[in-house]
Amino acid sequence: MWEIGVECAAVLVKLNELIERCAVNEVIHVISDDRTADIEMERWSDQTGQAVLESRKEGKLTHFIVKKVK
User: Fold this and answer.
1) Which residues contact 19 (CB under 8 A, 6 or more apart)?
2) Where does residue 31 rank: exposed (0-12), middle (13-18), buried (19+ CB within 10 A)?
3) What is the pTM of this model?
């Protein structure tokens, strides 16, 4: 998911929709430039029970690897 210029709350809505269509153990690569993305993704993971396997910064972008676990 390439989500540059999109507020993290909107990204999470799209991520929820996409992850519903995924099979268990599938992964999604999310790229965001939202400054609060780290905090929001951690909160999202806690609330949904889905796994954030990796989080890394590249300049102003943050990359997340998310795995559907249930």
Assistant:
1) 28, 48, 50, 66, 68
2) middle
3) 0.88
CA 17/CA 11 separation, integer angstroms: 10
Within 8 A by CB and 6+ apart from 37, the residues are 8, 11, 62, 64
Instruction: Report the relative pairing of strands 61-67 and 2-3 from DSSP bridges.
Output: unpaired
- What is the token pair recorded at 56? 């890394």
Do residues 8 and 18 lie in contact, with contact meaning Cβ atoms separated by under 8 Å?
Answer: no
- Is the pLDDT at 12 greater than 80? The verdict is yes
| Domain range list for the chain | 2-67
CATH 1.10.3370.10 for domain 2-67:
no
